[in-house]
Amino acid sequence: MKLKINGIEHELDIDTRTSLLDACRDHLGFTGSKKGCDHGQCGACTMLVNGRRINSCLTLAVMHEGDEITTIEGIGQPDKLHPMQEAFLHHDGFQCGYCTPGQIVSAVGMLGEVKDNWPSHASDNVTGDANLSSDEIRERMSGNICRCSAYPNIVDAIESASA
Ligand code: FES
Question: Keyword annotations for this protein (predicted)?
Fold first, then answer.
């Protein structure tokens, strides 16, 4: 099977029962997406498929041939962070950091859902103005759990990045 991840096509020879999360982490080395619950409850494994958020633990890799898959590794680069990553840094939107890749991918996808020209890659133009209240952000990000309870800072980061 072939999977296009962060703009590059990868060929894989794996069991068709392999989840997209396991395919990326265990077979392709994209370990940024985390496995928290493996049951669709925590959001640590969030990826974008054709720009939309999914729990990659709940879907089979084989179902995504031909799709554009984006992991946290495709959101920004160490020398050129995505504005959402900058905002998480600036607002201390994490504690242990385990949920952070999923939070950031989900936040980028969420803003893409409400604002079509939001950049999903660091190289895209930076625009905000999504006009989301903190309550809306909490509701739209409710699929991403943070066991450290860094929620106030996470919401602040997303609010500032989207303003
Ligand atoms: Fe996929 Fe928790 S690991 S939702």
Answer: Iron, Metal-binding, Oxidoreductase
Ligand 1 mean position to 125 CA, how many Å?
30
Q: What topology does CATH give the domain 2-74?
A: Ubiquitin-like (UB roll) (3.10.20)
> pTM to 2 decimals?
0.92
Whose Cα sits closest to atom 4 in ligand 1?
Answer: 40
**Interface predicted TM-score (ipTM) of this complex, two decimals:** 0.98
In tens, the pLDDT along 1-17 reads 999 999 999 999 999 99
Cα 129 from chain centroid (whole Å): 20
Domain 83-162 falls under CATH 1.10.150.120? yes
Q: Are 121 and 85 in contact (CB under 8 A)?
A: no
